TrEMBL record:
CDD domains: retropepsin_like. One of its GO terms (biological process) is DNA biosynthetic process. This is Uncharacterized protein LOC112462816. It comes from the Eukaryota. Pfam families: DUF1759 (PF03564), Peptidase_A17 (PF05380). InterPro entries: DNA/RNA_pol_sf (IPR043502), DUF1759 (IPR005312), Peptidase_aspartic_dom_sf (IPR021109), Retrotrans_Pao (IPR008042). It comes from Temnothorax curvispinosus. PANTHER family: PHD-TYPE DOMAIN-CONTAINING PROTEIN, RIBONUCLEASE H. Gene3D superfamilies: Acid Proteases.
Length: 1168
């Protein structure tokens, strides 16, 4: 343990030294100092690699360490390397640029010296002295991913670096990494910094941004988006000239016939000019009527206009200066009927009050004192005076009641920096604004209790608290594993694998709280995105801001969600007028938030912090759905269209295998898939480097995919520039299931990844109607057979081919080794992860049953009977009735297998049985033959009687049949069935947590899966606790009240006792007739109500037996309802449950008896 701690301390020391060197290298660094630091960083690089290797070796050897000194997982170790590599390469690049710049300057100086003649005394002339001046540092071009910048960057980088033979490949790569930022850096960021990867990185940039058509569209749009030209403003006219020339030159480089566009562009540009300029141009064209004016003529004319206006402005300025006394500015008054703009009420100069320098220097109390008395009475005039609009001073939340904070506001007109007033100019410019997001500086504690300052974003739109991995590394806190999926805007999902508990403390008050945070690599961009002028906000000096630097762009380390946000808010606030952010008091200090008008000329990107817990929501939905009774619904128009597309296009090849088309929505287009699939592949390869076992399993899975023909090579990649609307690249990642008896690892394909148009493949595809059979009904039927069998279909999705025309919608990028080129593969079969995959698979099983039944009946039915069959062949419920009638008239194992295919399959699992061993053996054989006709293969057979599986083919090459595991229970669809003892049982494992929160409790309740309600008395307690959570309205991550927490812990710790329960699977054992009576009970209390069904039968010896079939329970509504009404609800639930059982068991039920102990309810029922 001490060795691991020492290694981590050494690594932190090395990283700190490297950071300090990187921070001290700039353009003022001398060559000698740069060389010394270059040697030092190389030694630090070697030392880091050695220490990191020792830590990795310790992890691989399985060293056990203390809980607070756990060796970082592989992903975090990789993050440590990535952080250090970034610092090293940044420092190395800076140092190399200092050395290269000095060498370039020396070369230029030497060339000039050789070219300059010498004086008679052999000394150099004046030219040498000129070269002694230090040259400015040569700055490389930067590229952020903006298509407007691409050609300029490519040309500059190519001439300076790419075609520079004096630079090595690794030097070129370092220059390239330092020259790209933002989206462009993400394209090459996953490549290791080696000489071999320079060409790969450069090719990736070319593939992503060297799109002539897209570049043309971008520059055409920019060209036609002319900037506004204000009257008599030469600067805006010159800007227009530069704008047109720049984009035309770029389009000419892209080989467009720009010389043919003169008349069109002149017409468009002329209409952007004021009346006088248009008039002057028309007079100019009359001078040469024989020749048509060219665009160059027009731009030259505009250039002359600019020069004329500039001369006039300078002359005018001198003239006005000569007439104005020194020290006094000339006021220009404009009288217009449409506007009114008066001078400052404090200094009488021509600007708004809240921009008055004298006023801004006053404290809040002085501002109020200055304006509260005399002619201004008790109100304060608005920043722009108006007789109708006056602003009352509001009470400050400060302790001294005599001090008043005054809220200032401006009009919605744009505020000009110039002191001149012109309504024409104001109307020509739209007001700009930004939204200030509320941030706070807080103190967090590390593992040793040390304090660290960090920046927190307060976000009421997030259900979760978030923290960055970088801050976790600094604090050295221990994280817990938790698989979460958080969803944001446009349903974008992020997988989270860790959570951590963090203590935060206010810097302005005695307030401390512990919160649970999900760990992410980054939360958002730097906030605010542009620096804010605080003078526009008029902050009272006496306020203690939660974040004194809220106006300065900086990183966000923590996001505080709605669970804590509303607890921090205090009642005091300072309301501001529209266009000025509001001030709100919190337990962390005063925060600033809201819209700020005239904040900046830049247009920052918007940030929206809506975060939801999609996975928890899905778990809760699944929990409640198992408690619902079945109700049939009609198909929607989309589902009907999906069904039509399937039945009109489905076909089978010569082997019987199904071929389907992907059901597509009309009008949904797919854009450019971008490079996210490639970045996901690079991320996967980095993960492989730290986990060889995962890589071997993943490669084996993909090789099996290709070997079986389920995917085929398309060509080298990644080239996503062609067939954008007809193709889609699926990112992929592993899902590991350690408890699986066959495939421990499964590769999942993400068809929800968004393209450049904001759409995904799943957005384009119909999900289709729910073809899934009710698990409740399947397991009920499973419990009625004396002899049962279970099996599943091997790789069901992959047994169904997708038609050739749709396979380009299922492309993936893959290579088994990073040294190989990335290749594009087509997925030839139905792919897991697409929205329509479950629908297509289950529809093919239904279609197999229908077509094989039709083939079987052709030899036995008359023409009229066959015609009747064809009318109902696609109506599954009527088809099942037809089959049952046929089985009553004539026993047929093949017809029985078809009925099982339609009724007893839950996704790819079958749970069925027969009344005799011979019947079960025949059913198994018929199922094998039936599924094989569609090229589906059954495997993982289980039975409660080993004689049923004695004839299974042990010599099967792919070992598709597995023997019964006699030592333990096999898990069947979430329900544990011990095939040897033929009993149902539950497996519960619990994990204690120190902090019991609403999120934790709901997540653990949602994991209770009891489809038949055999644990009804246990589950209803969890439902009541869940209801209590909503009643107290506690936050998601807030610790529960003491009483409720104690109730939950007592309940949670008792759950493992259910592991001892063993429930007979067969509800009617020892009964030759296989019939039973159905007996049900409904009851209610003030807290809950429920219903339960029993099977009562007579054994061969004459004794009666009763077995629990199923139950359902409900929590009583929060609104007070009389007990008889709740008893009536219980009776209604009982009748619904009975109706489902009767549909499942049919004529096996002899008699039905239902009971209620409420005489009121019985009387109500009797009179209805």
């Amino acid at each position: 343990m001490a060795d691991v701690r020492r290694l981590k301390q050494n690594r932190a020391t090395i990283k700190g030294q490297m950071t300090r060197i990187n921070n001290t290298v700039d353009e003022n660094t001398s060559v000698a100092e740069a060389k010394v630091k270059s040697t030092k960083i190389e030694s630090l690089w070697e030392a880091f690699q050695e220490v990191q290797k020792k830590i990795d070796d310790a992890r691989l050897e399985g060293i056990e360490v203390a809980a607070d000194e756990e060796v970082l997982p592989t992903a975090e170790q990789e993050a440590e390397r990535q952080i250090f590599e970034n610092i090293y390469f940044e420092a190395a690049t800076k140092i190399q640029m200092v050395i290269d710049t000095a060498q370039a300057a020396n070369q230029v100086q030497a060339q000039v010296a050789r070219a300059e003649p010498q004086n008679e005394d052999g000394r150099r002339g004046q030219g040498e002295r000129r070269m002694e001046v230090k040259l400015p540092t040569l700055k490389l071009p930067e590229f952020s991913g903006n298509y407007n910048e691409w050609l300029l960057f490519k040309d500059a980088f190519t001439s300076l670096i790419h075609e520079n033979d004096t630079l090595t490949e690794i030097q070129k790569y370092q220059y390239l990494r330092s020259s790209v930022t933002g989206e462009a850096f993400q394209v090459i960021g996953g490549l290791a910094t080696t000489a071999a990867n320079y060409e790969n990185a450069w090719d990736l940039l070319l593939n992503n941004y060297e799109h002539p058509r897209l570049l043309i569209n971008t520059h055409l749009s920019q060209l036609l988006d002319f900037p506004a030209v204000s009257k008599d403003k030469p600067a805006t006219m010159r800007q227009l000239i530069v704008h047109v020339r720049t984009h035309l030159k770029t389009l000419e480089t892209l080989e467009l016939p720009v010389d043919k566009w003169d008349e069109l562009l002149i017409h468009l540009l002329k209409n952007r000019m004021d009346y006088n300029t248009q008039k002057s141009w028309e007079e100019e064209t009359k001078k040469d009527k024989e020749n048509r004016p060219t665009l160059e003529n027009f731009l030259t004319f505009l250039n002359e206009q600019v020069r004329t206006l500039e001369i006039i402005d300078k002359t005018k300025g001198k003239s006005e200066a000569s007439k104005t006394p020194a020290g006094k500015k000339q006021e220009r008054k404009v009288a217009l009927a449409t506007t009114s703009q008066e001078g400052c009420v404090l200094c009488s100069k021509n600007h708004q009050l809240y921009r008055c320098p004298d006023f801004l220097q006053l404290s809040s109390a002085d501002r109020l004192k200055e304006h509260a008395g005399g002619a201004r009475r008790s109100t304060i005039p608005c920043c722009i005076q108006s007789k109708k609009r006056r602003l009352q001073p509001i009470k400050s939340p400060e302790e001294d009641a005599s001090k008043k904070a005054v809220v200032m506001h401006g009009t919605q007109e744009t505020l000009q920096d110039t002191e001149e007033s012109s309504s024409v100019i104001n109307l020509g410019r739209k007001p700009t604004s930004c939204v200030v997001l509320s941030t706070a500086r807080v103190i967090v504690h590390d593992v040793n209790g040390g304090q660290h300052k960090c920046r927190a974003l307060l976000d009421a739109g997030s259900q979760s608290n978030l923290i960055t991995q970088e801050l976790i590394d600094r604090l050295r806190l221990k994280c817990k594993r938790r698989d979460e999926v958080i969803s944001g805007i446009n349903r974008l999902q992020t997988n989270v694998g860790k959570t951590v508990e963090v203590k935060i403390r206010s810097m302005n008050a005695d307030y401390e709280v512990a919160i649970e945070c999900l760990v992410l690599p980054a939360i958002t961009e730097r906030l605010p995105q542009v620096k804010i002028n605080t003078k526009l906000i008029c902050l009272p000096e006496s306020l203690s801001l939660a974040d004194p630097d809220f106006h300065t762009p900086g990183t966000v380390d923590i996001l505080i969600g709605a669970g804590l946000f509303w607890q921090l808010i205090c009642k005091d606030y300072i309301q501001r007028p529209k266009g000025i952010p509001r001030l709100q008091r919190t337990l962390l200090g005063w925060i600033v938030g809201g819209e700020l008008l005239d904040a900046s000329s830049e247009t920052p990107r918007s940030f929206c912090g809506l975060i939801t817990n999609a996975q928890l929501q899905a778990q809760l939905e699944r929990f409640w759905k198992q408690e619902e009774t079945l109700e049939k619904r009609s198909l929607t128009q989309e589902e009907i269209e999906c069904e039509r597309q399937f039945h009109e296009s489905v076909k089978r090849d010569e082997t019987g295998r199904f071929i389907v088309t992907l059901p597509k929505k009309p009008g949904v287009k797919l854009g450019d898939p971008g490079n996210q699939a490639l970045q996901r592949l690079y991320s996967l390869e980095r993960r492989f480097r730290g986990d060889p076992a995962l890589k071997n399993a993943y490669v084996q899975f993909m090789e099996d995919y290709e070997t079986r023909g389920h995917m085929s090579l398309m060509g080298p990649g990644p080239d996503t520039s062609t067939k954008v609307e007809q193709s889609y690249i699926l990112p992929h990642h592993p899902v590991i299931k350690p408890d699986s008896t066959t495939t421990k690892l499964r590769v999942v394909f993400n068809a929800s990844a968004k393209t450049s148009l904001g759409t995904s493949l799943n957005d384009k595809l119909f999900a289709g109607p729910n073809k899934q059979k009710s698990l409740f009904c399947i397991v009920l039927r499973f419990r009625s057979h004396p002899f049962v069998i279970t099996a599943d279909i091997a790789a069901m999705f992959r047994q169904i081919l997708v038609c050739e025309e749709d396979r380009d919608l299922q492309l993936i990028l893959w290579r088994s080794d990073p040294s190989q080129p990335v290749q594009i593969f087509r997925m030839n079969t139905v792919t897991y992860g697409t929205a329509c995959a479950p629908y297509l698979a289950l529809s093919c099983l239904e279609r197999l049953a229908i077509e094989e039944l039709e083939r079987f009946l052709k030899a036995t039915l008359t023409v009229e009977e066959m015609k009747m069959f064809l009318e109902i062949r696609l109506k599954i419920e009527e088809l099942k009735k037809f089959l049952k009638e046929a089985l009553d008239n004539k026993k047929s194992e093949f017809l029985q297998a078809i009925l099982v295919l339609l009724e007893d399959f839950y996704m790819d699992d079958v749970l069925s049985g027969a009344s005799t061993i011979e019947g079960a053996i025949a059913l198994r054989q018929q199922l094998l033959e039936l599924l094989q006709r569609g090229q589906f293969q059954l495997r993982k057979w289980r039975s409660n009687d080993p004689r049923i599986l004695e004839e299974q083919p042990e010599s099967n090459d792919d070992n598709s049949f597995l023997k019964i595991d006699k030592e333990g229970a096999m898990k069947t669809l979430g329900l544990l069935w011990d095939a040897q003892s033929d009993v149902l049982q539950y497996s519960v494992s619990i994990e204690e947590n120190s902090r019991v929160t609403k999120r934790l409790v709901l997540s653990q309740i949602a994991q209770i899966y009891d489809p038949l309600g055999l644990l009804g008395p246990v589950v209803i307690i969890a439902k009541c606790i869940m209801q209590s959570l909503w009643q107290i309205k506690t936050g998601w991550d807030e610790v529960l009240p003491t009483e409720l927490e104690a109730t939950w812990k007592e309940y949670y710790r008792s759950l493992p006792q259910t592991n001892e329960m063993k429930i007979p699977r067969n509800i009617n054992p020892g009964n030759v007739s296989n019939q039973f009576d159905l007996v049900g009970f409904g009851d209610a209390s003030e807290k809950a109500y429920g219903a339960v069904l029993y099977a009562v039968s007579q054994r061969s010896g004459g004794t009666l037996q009763a077995h629990l079939i199923c139950s359902k329970s409900r929590v009583a509504p929060l609104k007070t309802i009389s007990l008889p009404r709740l008893e009536l609800d219980a009776a209604l639930l009982l009748t619904k449950l009975t109706e489902q059982a009767r549909k499942v068991y049919g004529d096996r039920i002899q008699n039905v008896s239902l009971f209620s102990d409420s005489t009121v309810v019985l009387n109500w029922i009797a009179v209805t």
